[in-house]
Amino acid sequence: MKPISKPLGALAAISVAIGMLFAGTGTAFAADGDIALDATNFPDSAFLTCLENPSQSYLTVDKNHDGMLSTEERNNVSTIKCNAGDFESDTLIKSVEGIEYFPNLTQLFVTDNALTSLDFSQNPKLEQVYATNNPLTSIDVTKNPELTGLYLTQNKLTSLDVSNNSKLTDLYVHSNQLTNLDISHNPRLEEVDVGDNALTSLDVSGNTVLTSLNVAGNALSSLDISHNPRLEEVRAEENNLTSLGTGSTTYPSLAKLYGYRNQLSDVDTTRMPNLTELDVAHNQLSSLDLSQNSQLRYVSAGSNALIAAKANENARTVTINGTQFERHYKGTTFDLTSLQSAVPWFDPSQVSNVEGANLEGTSLTGLQGDVDVSYSYAMGGGSTLTAHLRLIGDDVPPAPTYFTVSFDTRGGSSVESQSVESGKTASEPAAPSRDGYTFDGWYTAASGGSRYDFDATPVTGDLALYAHWTEVPPAPSHATVWFDSVGGSSVSSQSVEVGKPVSRPADPSRDGYVFDGWYTERTGGEEYDFSAPVNGNVTLYAHWTRKQAEKGALKRLAGATRYETMGAVVSAGFPGRSEYVVVASGDNFPDALSASSLAGGLKAPIVLTGSGGLNAVARERVRASGASKAVVIGSTVAVSAAAASELRSMGLSVDRIQGSNRYDTNVEVYKAGRRLGVDW
């Protein structure tokens, strides 16, 4: 934003003779008597050079060139002109220390220097200060009641106190860093330029003689100029203005009004008869009434959703191109008179050149879905507005809304985000990977939160999910290898360094059996390779083959009852441990025969019991077998539910196999054997 320019004009030569008016008064705030024109009293070399060799002779402070400044010489100084370029120096002025020796100073020019602060507390007659384009961060004018002009454009001021400067007429602080400014004590202000600062508000209600106001490039949300009827120029562009208060005030002299790039929904220019320039582009205007502005020569109002505008017949012809104004409709027509709810004076008869629809009377017809329509609106005086409507059909389902589901793997491999339709569920992505960690799932927070349910949670907004991890403990340096001899002689476990093979132990022994080797499973599995490295704890199982009975050998197995005989047979045939035990009725020989076949296939003992529950012998042989799984043959009539319940209480799982009769039971036993891995 350009500052409002104030021509300085020819510098009024305030002669020493005028300064003589103050001579002899005996007033000298800093010192009485002679002082040396040297670095002691004027320590800034550039400032001293300017005082010693001013650009014009009449500005010489040391009139007799004796290197001393008398009281008379100092009191005669009314103007100091030390702008960069006004004097010859290799450096810029950083300080005007010594200025206090000139109590009658009225004008100071120090533009384009390197000043960071100014203190005029010893210069009470100061009227004008020109200090533009310095890095000023502070200035004290509280002791300068005669001040009329303060020109501080392009500095670094964050605050400014002008409450004691009631005679101030010109205030230029464009391009500083001000966040607030109080000018309520300056009723004579005519020109104010506070553009390009950080002001959020500015009260000019007490500045009734204001003619020029620049507040462009701030953060104002409102500006009330209803108390400033003498305004000739207003620059309020590039703020956050939602309103420009003019009230019922007439502005007979206002020629230029700039308010572009704001959020204005209304601009009233009807009481600005001499307006020549208007720029209100990039706002939220829906209408613009320029019918009372006959002197307009420049108008910029583009980038507004204008649907109607008026121009004065005598003003220069203008063309305005609006942006889209949105309205809803139902069916296939839209009545233009409905736009009068937004602009009461909208006149459908001024509409022509319709594109995107048919104009029949006051209605746009032939509409379907969402439609873009443009038309020309006759403003008057040959000026034309090109308006644009965005008509949204309410009978058409709105386009779906999509949200983004992002995945923060928190150190893991990357996972692409998903675009998900509102109300639908996101797809669970493949689990990321991370060295030294296991993936625990996706959660709603990086720490804590709840596990996200991809199947049951609809997406209703943008969503971030976070991977949770569990650190994998370091692999043990040693592993244990246990040897289960499965009824054979005991074999000690071995501790083995991870990655090294375990030593093959001596073969165990078992009466009546031949040792087949060490296997990875109790039944089945693969024979263990003792040359392979051990990577973790492992249990190996001995496999055995029963020896063939010696020719002519005979051993009788018997008991007092069929159940005791069963116990003797099982004890002799299965001295070790087994995964399975087969339980059948001792009173139902067909079931027992079927059970015997299954027991052989499973390499498991068969235990017979009565119908009332497990007898003592059956109970003892079940425990001796060490089995974890029981296969019960027959219905609860053959083997009671109480027997099955007792087996479960002993820690065994129970699988009952039965048919409607002995034949069906035999068939079911066959099927169960196939299911359990028996190769019949």
From TrEMBL:
Region: Disordered, residue numbers: 411-432
Keywords: Leucine-rich repeat, Repeat, Signal
Keyword Repeat: yes
Keyword Repeat listed: yes
Name recorded for this polypeptide: Repeat protein
NCBIfam families (alphabetical): List_Bact_rpt
A GO CC annotation given for this chain: cell envelope
Biased composition (Low complexity): 411-423
GO molecular function: signaling adaptor activity
UniProt main location, coarse: other
Transmembrane spans: none
Pfam families per record: CW_binding_2 (PF04122), Flg_new (PF09479)
Signal sequence segment: 1-30
Localization annotation: Cell envelope
Record PROSITE patterns: LRR (PS51450)
